[in-house]
Amino acid sequence: MSASSNMNWDRRNVLRAAMGLAAAGGLAACGGNTGRSGGGSGDALVQYFHAYGEAGVEQAVKRYAKAYKGANVTTQWITGSNFEQKLFAALLTKNAPDVFEFHPQIQLVKSGQVADLTDIIEPVKDDFNQADIKSHTVDGKIYGVRMIDDPQFFFYRPSMFEKAGVEVPKTLEELIEAAAKLKTSKVKGAYLGNDLTPVQHNLIWSAGADTLTADNKPAFNTDAVAEGLKQLRGLFTSGDLLLGAPADWWDPSAFTQGLTAMQWCGMWAMPVMQKALGDDIGIFPFPKVGSAGKESVYNGGWSMFVNAKGKNVEAAKEYVKWLWIDQKKYQEDFATSYGFHIPPRTSLAESATKLKSGLPAEGVKLFNEFGHFDNIGWTQAMIAAINDVMANSVRKNGDPKAQLAAAEKKVDTELKKLFG
Amino acid sequence: MSTTTTRGVAQPAPAKVSKTRPRRGLRASSTFNFWLFTGPFLIGLIIFVFVPIGWSIWLSFFEARFTVTPSEFVGFENYKQVLTDADFRGSLVTFTVFAAFIVPATWALSLGLALLVNRLRFMRAFFRSVFFLPTAVSYVAASLIWKMSLFNGVRFGLANTVLGWFGVENIAWLSNPDPPWYWLVIVTVRLWLQSGFYMILFIAALQNIPRELYEAASLDGAKPGWQTFRHITLPQLRATSTAVILLLLVAAYQAFDEFFNLLSKATWGQPPLVELYKMALGENQNYGAGSAGAVVLTLLICVVTLVQGKIMGFGRGEESK
Question: What's the complex ipTM?
Fold first, then answer.
């Protein structure tokens, strides 16, 4: 016995030492990267980016930062699927980033986490896509600079459609039928991501509902949405859906490797897809759900925010202005040289030659015609509530109406906290 | 008897120290050595274990959203919230199901491996290392291997390839909770990671069983195999078994990595720590409620450990011998 208890003690010590070292290492790493000690010329800034999947983006972001003379900017490239959790946790600490990319969400404004950027955006406001300005505005103040717009829609293989005698689906029923016809022993009909949450908002929009009303009340709990969830449950259990793919929806691998005939993905993936499949790619919006619905595209994207509680707010704003307002060359490079994104600056969007023809031009068309932008009042907690609806009523056999009602309750609680 | 062997090994050490003490003077004083050796660990322990525990208990009595330095005292409000939270209570059920699988399974597998390896005449060290090696793999890395290559849902995943030979359709192991195949993935990854370590504990204990007992038994007519195992090996391993089960139970309570990495955006299979993570570090960043949950969980682990110790006699082993 004492033999084993000795071993336990050793193990515990070893573990503790390892934990200590890891934690110390982590702290040291953070400490080293913040470079807050100053001393050198100019300020030291830290920026957080989520890990873009396309090759070369990380190098590009670091190259832009290096070219900035006003401050010494360090980039933290946050890998893994839980960027928002890492960001939110980091914002509470002393090692919080000075600038970070994220989506417009009002709780960051209400908690005083993000700085008012109206003064740097105002001079060029008219050159921005007005929907992007609107989605970053609270009470007349603009809180973030949009860097890229990322429309998300279905990609499909026209050759497979032709072979199976399938037309591009206009309704969810047609999509489900098409998936069944397209499925072979090697290829699944459709891929909506491993947990199906990537299409959750489109399901709501395509059913003629919305996440929130104009005066910030829940608007997603409708019969049409419930019906759509039921149909999606049918698709989920049909065996026609690709599930458990090694690479998730934002990565084009499942599509380019021929695992699926249709995949929900974003415009960023176009260059890789075109390289792998040539012209055998088509796109279409999320089809109509129910009779009152309308096809929809999710105009996602990323924006730059300044940490209002950081130590170098002015220097951080200066940097954001320099890169994301003034340096149009870099903005265009960022939007079109790696993955394809739509520049939110109208002047850039018009001059970006790569988006002028072929598939990218079709993407821009869907973006303009069917796109739904972020609603700043729709926060991470509300997104999580809908994630649960997808899990419980599509992946599990829960009653859609009951699940939507439960989500509505959660969203209501959040809205009360935010708007009183 | 295991006691005698280890004491025998351990005893020469203090003797040596006492011999060298006069020559080295202060530097070798046992107080100095004590602090020299325990100091770094103690500092680490205080900073990374005791302070956070204390802070967490303090936080649990405050309204601490989006802050870890709260000012609004709310008494037991957070505890009320946590204990009435269906998700948190559900997670305790999840944990119980998980522990009911994993504890006996790991115990049996590691004991089985230990018995096999202990019987080997050749390459014993090799097999011991082979089975022990997974212990060095991180849970996150192993989860990703399980998720992306062994148990992915596509036709070329290892599990689906094997099933494909028998004409079975592809299974979405982790995406589809019905039937709950995800438990298979979770249990196997943990078995693979843990069994080797506990196997080593069992081997050590097996080697401490005196040969004379087996000889005496065989003289008395006990048949080798099940009879000797049942009446000699197993009782002799009681103390180690108790410790192993205790450690396994604590480890099961602490399960996080594989659940977090394997089940994305799921509402099922959420053990307590994942729930607490979502509560404290999710969208709401409710550190007060999260801390209250952590305190509840700690108390629960303490109670279970004490009860288990009472039933199985942890620590009594040596005195009774």
Answer: 0.79
